[in-house]
Every structure is written in structure tokens, then in C-alpha cells.
From TrEMBL:
Residues 10-272 form the Nucleotidyl transferase domain. The keyword Nucleus does not apply. Pfam families: NTP_transferase (PF00483). Coiled coil: none annotated. It catalyses: alpha-D-glucose 1-phosphate + UTP + H(+) = UDP-alpha-D-glucose + diphosphate. Keywords: Nucleotidyltransferase, Transferase. GO terms for biological process: UDP-alpha-D-glucose metabolic process. It comes from Streptomyces xinghaiensis. Its EC number is 2.7.7.9. The gene is galU. This is UTP--glucose-1-phosphate uridylyltransferase. The keyword Transferase applies. Gene3D superfamilies: Spore Coat Polysaccharide Biosynthesis Protein SpsA, Chain A (3.90.550.10).
Length: 300
């Protein structure tokens, strides 16, 4: 780590998607606000950023996303009602979200892809490296992926992506990476990236999941990146440019993640996420696991 390198303090969370896979639930409610047990999915993501030492969070939002801002703001009427009732437990849980971090918001406007959403953060981020966390991926707090990615960026510079080894039949759902080893078992040099390739065209089965630590040089590359797959500006395409042209602000490395990840962007995986997290809760787990065992036995 060089003396001049800036400690990362800012996180960007793109949250402008329409959540069409969860309609009609997301007709009037942002998908990021769908509950995972008793907290909205987006709160888990902000908590992860804060745990990794990031105190400044920018959400890139769109239309109908006002509930996101309300959730991370104070609700004085509700707090006063709980205080009057002497319900300190619920009061502390309500206040927890508004005390997590310094929150900022910017609207994406036209939905032109993840790369464009990240570019919307440029005025706020400035010239320092920053993290990007996608709300569909929840990383178990016992597996400090983002902390490890920040360590990798501080050591190697450039940008860092999170990699997950997936079944070859699933690679078309992700961007995937061509990698080569470094001196660290879980850190790899990324030499190429492809956005959602077919199984036959995929260069590997190392998928990029929704965590990034990016050098601010990515903004200049994104400004010059033409729309790619789906007619959108793809962050993967900009990272491919950086991987192949390290002098522009590279290199690009990947941290291979082998921990617990909950995909809340898919309906079936969303339900599995709720069950897994509920089973592990000290307050809910014992009774819920007993009920689940009986239910499964009855259905067999």
C-alpha cells in the first residue's frame, strides 16, 4: 500500500431498477424494500458497507423510490409513540437504520444500465476509489467479502471484482472473468471479462457477483463506453477495457468468494434467503426450524 493511496470511505448502491420479476408486489413498493425476515433487503446491504468501514453511502435511485429515503430517515412520530409506550426494543430497531451511515441520493433518470448508474455517482465520489454494492446480492455478515476486496485494492491498486465459481449452465446469468493467479490464494488477476456469455462462449465459470471496489478511472472509461448487451452501458465492458489497458487506471483483480450469499433478485432464491436467515436467528430459529421439520415431513 502506497503512502498516497486514499482509504476507501464511500459506497455506491444502484437502486433504480423496477423489480419487474416481483410484480405486483413492486408496483408501488421498491424491490429493495421487500422484507427479508423483518428488515428490508437494502438495509442488509448498507449494514455490510458500514461493517467494512464505509461511512458515506450514495444510492442511485429512480422514480417511485422515495420509500428508500424514508427508511433511512428519522420517523419522529413513530419514535415518540414507541418511546411513550416504553417499547425500547422496537424503538432501537427503528432508529438503527437512520443511524447507520451518512446517506445521499441521486436519480439516474434514464435507465441506461449499471454502467450508467455508476457514472451518475461521479460528482459525489470524486477521484477516490469507492465500492459498489448491488442490492440483489446479500452477503452473510460472517463472510467479510467487501473487507477482503478493500484489502486487495489497497495492495494491488486499480479495481477489484467479486468472483464466484458457478455451474457452467448458470454462467449466462452473469458477467464472467478470465483470471490468472497472484501470490494470494483467493486473489486473481483479471485479464478479460464477458457480459452474460453462452455456456459455449464463456471463457470460464468464474462469475462476477454484485460487489466491486473501483478506481475512479472507471468514470472516464464509462463516459466512452458504448451501449453493449441489451442496449445498456455495461460496467463489465468498462472493466474489460481497464483489464486490457492497465495504464488507463487498472489493473483489475478478483477476490474469489466461497462464503454464504443470498440472491434476493430471484423469487425462489428470495424465499430460500428468508428461510435460511430465519433459521439462523436466535429469536426465531428454534421454533421456526421445528415447524419447518414438521412441514417438510408432512410434505414428503
Amino acid at each position: 500500500m502506497t503512502e498516497s493511496r486514499t482509504r476507501i470511505s464511500k459506497a455506491v448502491i444502484p437502486a433504480a431498477g423496477l423489480g419487474t420479476r416481483f410484480l405486483p408486489a413492486t408496483k408501488a413498493t421498491p424491490k429493495e424494500m421487500l422484507p427479508v425476515v423483518d428488515k428490508p433487503a437494502i438495509q442488509y446491504v448498507v449494514e455490510e458497507a458500514v461493517t467494512a468501514g464505509l461511512s458515506d453511502v450514495l444510492m442511485v435511485t429512480g422514480r417511485n423510490k422515495r420509500p428508500l429515503e424514508d427508511h433511512f430517515d428519522r420517523n419522529y412520530e413513530l419514535e415518540e409513540m414507541l418511546r411513550h409506550k416504553g417499547d425500547g426494543d422496537r424503538l432501537s430497531r427503528v432508529q438503527e437504520s437512520s443511524d447507520l451511515a451518512t446517506m445521499h441520493y441521486v436519480r439516474q433518470g434514464d435507465p441506461r444500465g449499471l454502467g450508467h448508474a455508476v457514472l451518475c455517482a461521479a460528482p459525489h465520489v470524486g477521484q477516490q476509489p469507492f465500492a459498489v454494492l448491488l442490492g440483489d446480492d446479500l452477503i452473510d455478515p460472517r463472510d467479510p467479502l467487501l473487507t477482503r476486496m478493500i484489502e486487495a485494492q489497497e495492495r494491488y491498486g486499480g479495481s477489484v471484482v467479486a468472483l464466484l465459481e458457478v455451474d457452467p449452465d448458470q454462467v449466462h446469468l452473469y458477467g464472467c472473468a478470465v483470471i490468472e493467479p497472484t501470490g494470494d490464494d483467493d486473489i486473481h488477476r483479471v485479464t478479460g471479462l464477458v457480459e452474460k456469455p453462452s455456456r459455449e462462449e464463456a471463457p470460464s465459470n468464474y462469475a462476477i457477483i454484485g460487489r466491486y471496489v473501483l478506481d475512479a478511472a472507471v468514470f472516464d472509461v464509462l463516459r466512452k463506453t458504448e451501449p453493449g448487451r441489451g442496449g445498456e452501458i455495461q460496467l463489465t465492458d468498462a472493466l474489460q477495457t481497464l483489464a486490457q489497458n492497465p495504464d488507463l487506471g487498472g489493473p483489475v483483480h478478483g477476490v474469489l468468494f466461497k462464503g454464504r450469499r443470498y440472491d434476493t433478485g430471484d423469487r425462489a432464491d428470495y424465499l430460500r434467503s428468508i428461510v435460511r436467515l430465519a433459521c439462523e436467528r436466535e429469536d426465531l430459529g428454534p421454533d421456526f426450524r421445528d415447524w419447518l421439520r414438521r412441514y417438510v415431513a408432512e410434505e414428503m
